[in-house]
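Hi V.,

Quick status before I head out on leave. The structure for the redesign project is tokenized and pasted below; the design run finished overnight.
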């Protein structure tokens, strides 16, 4: 973005007007942020679009154990998640679970109920009837196999595939060991508790994906292609630039384009998070992913499906898991050695004390079984990434697209928020903000300026004529009303209005005409007006503040952000006035893009180790600064390719309040993640210690494994609930 004095071909050089050009274009974003520790992982398999089916997969490498979830959804996309990071291997295949449990989950529930009933019956029978040990074993084997046959089967399959440290194997060894010790009810109960825990975990995982699944539903399945007067239903991939598509009421807009027939209201909630429909009329842009609400429209396609807004957003969200936080990377490394070490300790606990005559074999084997059950790091490996996943999903529902969990971690430590001015804190649209008439007749002054500027397309001239039209909507400025319009390059414009010569322009133009100006003006772009050589007054043109800007800055301060900075290429007087209005801590004016980059780098150096520096831009310009900041946040990026590629966080509309909202979501997410880490580690350490001392029964070990996992997953889902900024 460059800043320069406005010297336009149509002769306008209005004083103090700094116009910032936007550079359109994208680039590959491969910035590495040391502050958040993000990095790419090759093991992530990203989504593949195949017409009407949408699939995605994530693989989290951590230890040699496998955890596999496979869910089938009825909303026309498929999830397949493999967590090669915990020592469990759950496979729940089901049909629709939009309103409750899936078919596979219902089967597990039925098996749990049957096994629990039979277990109670077996215990009653054993207490009432004296039975030999073999008969007891065979009797308790019935509820055991009903609830655990699939665990034993998966354990055998995984061992065959070389996955020894698998939760199925560990749970199988623990329960078979309990049977070998004659603890039949405890063996069945451990398996039953494990399956119930996995059931609730699986259900919680499904529920936690709702926000992302809702976002995925913006992907259109078909397009109504119009050719030679007929309409053919095709896939979006078959439509090309220049084709005309028809979008009926209630349908999703399949591709980006321009409205060429009709008008309608569009539901943009899936893209922006805003519930207010957006009205579009002839020749206005229409973006894919919106829902047509009120009228049949025809759209001329401007982008191929692979380059459309909906595809870029889906790819952004789907690939977000590839950038891990330091916490996730720690969990990955931790899980690699945790399970093998604990299993080795279990073997030592089982054999060394009896060999040293420190107790009976049965007692120490029981303690070793506790070690085996607690040796799975599932609660950490699943709940920590899920916490970030839920946080990203919660943000996406509000039109805040966070490109990776590392940026959630960075935003949670935000200490300095740097803002571009034009288009970020201000509307980026010039408007008449003040009229100073020498004779107090403001309407007459505005009329003279509007008539004189009526033939110009300069932004300042347009703002003056628009201001006149707003006050006089019934009146048209006709060619006969204005005569002999002359433009003076670098000065202003001259015209004959009502038989009198009217001149509008900057200070230099008034000096050239020998006309003195009665007063000095503090800020804004100034247009002085003279009639027959007599000064009539001055009109001030300024970029208006956004309605939410003041509250946005206050929200950031209340969220704990220590410093706010505004950078602009505009004049010092304009920047000072805006900064004072918003309560900005620091501001820098008259900057070029390189100057902004230098200032952000200096701020990053100053805050090194003490917080994170973000830069918030309007999503089109300032790409180098967006990339250099610890967290680059582009605002108003709906339809902007440059914004999606250049920034780390994309705000789909131009509401600056969402910066504070993103910070609050990030801090809530990080709090939940840290709670899960400490809770999971703490419980496991306590139960391992209790296991060595012989005071931890097998059911407590199962709680330390599956129970903690369920609680951690449930806690992770809290990351999706928070109060708005």
């Amino acid at each position: 973005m460059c800043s320069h004095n406005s010297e336009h071909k149509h002769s306008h050089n209005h004083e103090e007007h700094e116009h910032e050009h936007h550079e359109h274009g994208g680039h590959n974003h491969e910035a590495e942020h040391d502050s958040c520790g993000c990095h790419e992982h090759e093991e992530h398999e990203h989504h593949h679009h195949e017409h009407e089916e949408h699939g995605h997969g994530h693989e989290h490498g951590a230890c040699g154990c496998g955890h596999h979830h496979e869910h089938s959804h009825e909303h026309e996309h498929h999830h397949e998640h493999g967590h090669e990071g915990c020592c469990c291997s759950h496979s729940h295949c089901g049909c629709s679970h939009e309103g409750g449990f899936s078919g596979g989950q219902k089967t597990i529930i039925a098996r749990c109920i049957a096994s629990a009933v039979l277990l109670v019956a077996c215990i009653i029978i054993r207490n009432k009837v004296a039975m030999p040990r073999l008969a007891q074993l065979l009797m308790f084997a019935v509820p055991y196999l009903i609830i655990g046959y699939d665990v034993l089967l998966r354990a055998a399959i995984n061992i065959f595939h070389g996955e020894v440290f698998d939760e199925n194997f560990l749970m199988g060894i623990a329960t078979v060991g309990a049977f070998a010790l004659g603890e039949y009810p405890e063996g069945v109960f451990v398996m039953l508790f494990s399956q119930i825990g996995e059931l609730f975990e699986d259900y919680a995982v499904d529920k936690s994906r709702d926000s992302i699944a809702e976002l995925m539903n913006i992907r259109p399945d078909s397009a109504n292609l119009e050719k030679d007067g007929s309409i053919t239903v095709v896939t979006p991939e078959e439509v090309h630039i220049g084709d005309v598509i028809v979008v009926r009421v209630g349908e999703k807009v399949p591709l980006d384009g321009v409205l060429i027939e009709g008008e309608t209201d569009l539901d943009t909630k899936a893209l922006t998070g805003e519930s207010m429909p957006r009205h579009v009329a002839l020749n206005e842009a229409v973006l894919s992913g919106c829902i047509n609400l009120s009228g049949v429209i025809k759209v001329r396609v401007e982008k191929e499906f692979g380059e459309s807004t909906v595809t870029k957003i889906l790819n952004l969200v789907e690939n977000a898991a590839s950038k891990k936080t330091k916490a996730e990377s720690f969990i990955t490394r931790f899980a690699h050695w945790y399970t093998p070490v604990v299993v080795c300790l279990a073997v030592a606990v089982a054999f060394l004390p009896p060999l040293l005559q420190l107790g009976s074999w049965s007692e120490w084997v029981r303690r070793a079984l506790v070690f085996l059950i607690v040796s799975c790091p599932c609660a950490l490996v699943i709940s920590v990434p899920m916490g970030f996943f839920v946080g990203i999903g919660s943000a996406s529902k509000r039109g805040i697209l966070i490109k990776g969990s590392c940026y959630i971690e960075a935003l949670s430590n935000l200490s300095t928020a740097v803002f571009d001015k034009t288009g970020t804190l201000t509307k980026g649209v010039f408007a008449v903000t003040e009229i100073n008439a020498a004779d107090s007749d403001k309407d007459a002054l505005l009329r003279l300026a509007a008539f004189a500027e009526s033939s110009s397309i300069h932004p300042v001239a347009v703002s003056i004529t628009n201001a006149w039209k707003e006050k006089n909507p019934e009146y048209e400025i006709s060619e006969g009303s204005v005569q002999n319009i002359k433009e003076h390059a670098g000065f202003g414009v001259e015209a004959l209005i009502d038989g009198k010569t009217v001149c509008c322009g900057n200070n230099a133009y008034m000096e050239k005409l020998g006309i003195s100006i009665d007063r000095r003006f503090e800020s804004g772009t100034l247009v002085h007006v003279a009639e027959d050589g007599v000064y009539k007054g001055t009109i001030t043109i300024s970029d208006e503040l956004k309605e939410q800007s003041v509250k946005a800055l206050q929200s950031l301060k209340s969220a704990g952000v220590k410093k706010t900075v505004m950078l602009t290429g505009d004049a010092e007087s304009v920047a000072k006035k805006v900064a004072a209005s918003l309560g900005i801590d620091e501001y820098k004016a008259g900057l070029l893009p390189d100057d902004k980059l230098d200032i952000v780098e200096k701020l990053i150096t100053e805050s090194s180790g003490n917080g994170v520096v973000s830069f918030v831009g309007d999503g089109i310009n300032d790409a180098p600064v967006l990339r250099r900041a610890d967290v680059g946040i582009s605002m108003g990026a709906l339809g902007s390719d440059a914004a999606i590629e250049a920034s780390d966080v994309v705000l789909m509309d131009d509401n600056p309040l969402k910066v504070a909202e993103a910070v609050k979501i990030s801090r809530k997410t990080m709090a939940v993640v840290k709670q899960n880490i400490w809770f999971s580690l703490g419980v496991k350490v306590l139960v391992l210690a209790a296991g060595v001392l012989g005071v931890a029964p097998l059911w407590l070990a199962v709680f330390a494994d599956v129970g903690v996992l369920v609680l951690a997953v449930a806690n992770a889902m809290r990351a999706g609930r928070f109060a708005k900024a």
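Above is the designed sequence. Residues 1-99 have pLDDT under 50 and may be disordered.

G. will cover questions while I'm gone.

Best,
W.
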